[in-house]
Amino acid sequence: MSVKSIDFTDKNLERFFQKSDLLPAVVQEASTGQVLMVAYMNRESLKRTLQTGYTWFYSRSRKKLWNKGETSGNVQKIVKIYSDCDDDTLLILADQTGPACHTGAHSCFFQEIWRDDDGKCLDGIIPNGPEPEK
Amino acid sequence: MSVKSIDFTDKNLERFFQKSDLLPAVVQEASTGQVLMVAYMNRESLKRTLQTGYTWFYSRSRKKLWNKGETSGNVQKIVKIYSDCDDDTLLILADQTGPACHTGAHSCFFQEIWRDDDGKCLDGIIPNGPEPEK
User: Fold this and answer.
1) What is B10-96's CATH topology?
2) Which of A51, A91, A100, A119 is the most exposed place for a label (fewest CB within 10 A)?
3) How far apart are CA B85 and CA B106, in angstroms?
4) What is the pLDDT of residue B35?
5) Cα(B107)–Cα(A105) distance, rounded to whole angstroms?
6) B 101-130 residues with CB below 8 A of A?
């Protein structure tokens, strides 16, 4: 199935919460392909995301809904959302305003922990962004 | 911190399992930037991944270690691994042999469920791959 938009009734949204009450969402920058962050959505945050076109998550530590960029201004305007083959993960393509990471880094994935010395990686896919201020 | 490779003793690996015994890993194709799948690693699968340079996951449904591509041949040779700002998610850049998805689709994220009609999305970042065979 590849649809432009499905009918998001509460019942339809249940397909994304069959394994867990929290749905992981990968946020990828639409213009560069850089993976920015992974966060979790509950039913209410998914509904608000689809209604507003901006990302809403559920903070596991603070136990509350969280509109990404609400205080910092670093919002994520969504271009497209894909669901995976078994409807237990979302991929969100978004236009990111400012840095995505709370450390100030553009992407949360700024710590390189392993490298294959023979490996090739296209320039620009994962830019070695500036280190966040400590 | 940005290091080429850290010392992966059992103790060092614990930093990735502070919130959960299962660590989500986003696999991104190194040559195209396409996000292929999200799967989970326990301590043993992370260790085997770092030792071999190929992805090993833990199947939540089958409750066992799973070497991606072991039966299908559709392996993922790792180029780089990044950890996120709070060490609770990995981003793996890999060279994918064959399709990543068990349906035959190149990426597991082939179901488009939402689109901003004003949104722009670079060609090639998320190719509209062939639908999997039903």
Assistant:
1) Ubiquitin-like (UB roll) (3.10.20)
2) A51
3) 29
4) 98
5) 27
6) 101-103, 105, 108-116, 119-122, 125-126, 128
User: DSSP secondary-structure letter at A3?
Assistant: -
Token representation of residue B19: 């919130």
- What value of ipTM does the predicted structure carry? 0.85
Helix-strand-coil split of chain A, %, nearest 5: 15, 30, 55
Among A87, A110, A115, beta carbon nearest to B4: A115
The mean pLDDT value for A41-49 works out to 95
A chain contacts of residue B6, beta-carbon cutoff 8 Å: 113
Three-state DSSP at B124 gives: coil
For A89-118, write each residue's pLDDT tens digit. 999 999 999 999 999 999 999 999 888 875
Q: Show which of residues 11-40 on chain B sit within 8 Å of chain A, judged by CB atoms.
A: 19, 24, 26, 28, 30-35, 37-38
Select from A7, A34, A109 the residue whose CB has the most chain B CBs within 10 Å, as the one to mutate to test that interface: A109
Q: B88 with B19: CB under 8 angstroms?
A: yes
Q: Which among A34, A81, A121 is the nearest to B30, CB-wise?
A: A121
Residues with Cβ < 8 Å from B53, sequence gap 6 or more?
A116, B77, B78
Closest CA to A95 of A84, A106, A103: A106
Q: How far is A9 from A11, CA to CA, in rounded Å?
A: 5
Q: Is B63 on the interface with A (CB under 8 A)?
A: no
How buried is residue A116: exposed, middle or buried, by Cβ count under 10 Å (0-12/13-18/19+)? middle
Would you say how long chain B is, in residues? 134
Chains A, B: CB contacts within 8 A come to: 193
